[in-house]
Protein: RsmB/NOP family class I SAM-dependent RNA methyltransferase
Amino acid sequence: MHPKALLDAATELVRRVLLLDHPADTVVSRFFREHRALGPRERATLAETAYAVLRRKPLYEHLARAGSGSRERRLAILGFHAPRDFLKQALSEPEKAWLDACDAVPPAELAPEYRHNLPSWLVAPLRAQVGDEFDTLAAALLEPAPLDLRVNTLKEKRAAAQAELAQAAIKAIETPYSPWGLRIDGKPALQKLDAFTRGAVEVQDEGSQLLALLLDARRGEMVADFCAGAGGKTLAIGATMRNTGRLYAFDVSAHRLDALKPRLARSGLSNVHPVAIAHERDERVKRLKGKMDRVLVDAPCSGLGTLRRNPDLKWRQQPKDVAELQARQLAILTSAARLVKPGGRLVYATCSVLPDENEAIAAAFGAEHADFEPLNVAELLQALKLPDAAALCTTDAAQPGQYLRLWPHRHGTDGFFAAAWQRKG
Ligand SMILES: C[S@@+](CC[C@H](N)C(=O)[O-])C[C@H]1O[C@@H](n2cnc3c(N)ncnc32)[C@H](O)[C@@H]1O
Structure:
């Protein structure tokens, strides 16, 4: 496609994602379905351009106050994911001069909001948590996430999967913390790889793998993944159970559970029972009261720990949404807790970096549930022989290691939180 046509397409896609009325990945997929003639490289350029604009929206809007042409075209030019000489074939002389002027602005001279590119309401809670590391965190959140795989140890050892990928010219290194993880160089197409189609590997961020590990589900147990969604963590938990026992995958979205089915088929797991529920107090949940050895609540959350892959969330989420989420999170955790049998383990997790969705929910639950003993997550991970377990957890002087707290700039994962309890016997 000629650079001019590709820039026009990017401008239209940028216009659509900036409406912020749907998740960016949905908008991009719909755009590609409408433009079937686009090749893989053109698709990559368009998607990366739209994501670049979402990532650096404040900076690009600032730079786009100068220049000419529509606002979306200026933003698409600034985010255009291709070599400058290719892009310049699409530009008028005044546009080229404006772009050169933008490129010449020294980053150090930019106001902080054009460097961190975060909404103002998010800055204070992040600064309060990471202090001097704020700029490093903000920079990490502006980078695309690496591609992590989880090796399905029911089918393959990690080293064998790594060797198989190498034969397909895909370089993969072991993830630093998860014993099942491989981190891939670049973004190769995996769907047609034998290792993928036969279920030996699945795409999953290392942080998600650690949440499944923390649940520590064993052979023959009764386990519930309460907010299973498309089942990323369900699959990892089923593998730790060595395909024995019974693993319920609950979710209120039948549509998301449907996406679990092909993944289950590939994985070779037959111990998973997907159940679409109407709400967290559904009769099908109540019937299992006190029967579960382990329950994971991977709660619906703002997703603000996943800004590397979902940069639109920082513009689509608002403080009032977080307040609404808190009520749902506590209600879901409270209902899910009823399933846990005496001596059983409960894990609450989110992919949010906001204390309001994390420590605050754990504290509110703890205050109402004296029958649940908080477990120290660092100790649980140490017992699982995880390297640097304490470094993955909170460091409060009063309760060191109490919660899992993963950060992109420290751990190279998405931002995750987890708290764990044991029901008193
Ligand atoms: C963070 S996502 C889960 C991601 C999934 N565990 C994974 O690893 O891919 C949260 C899920 O909670 C589900 N959910 C929302 N409200 C719920 C409720 N009341 N009961 C159970 N699941 C709920 C959503 O449909 C969504 O799939």
Observations:
- Residues 208, 226-233, 250-253, 256, 279-280, 298, 300, 332 surround S-adenosylmethionine (CB under 6 Å).
- The radius of gyration is 23 Å.
- The longest helix spans residues 319-337.
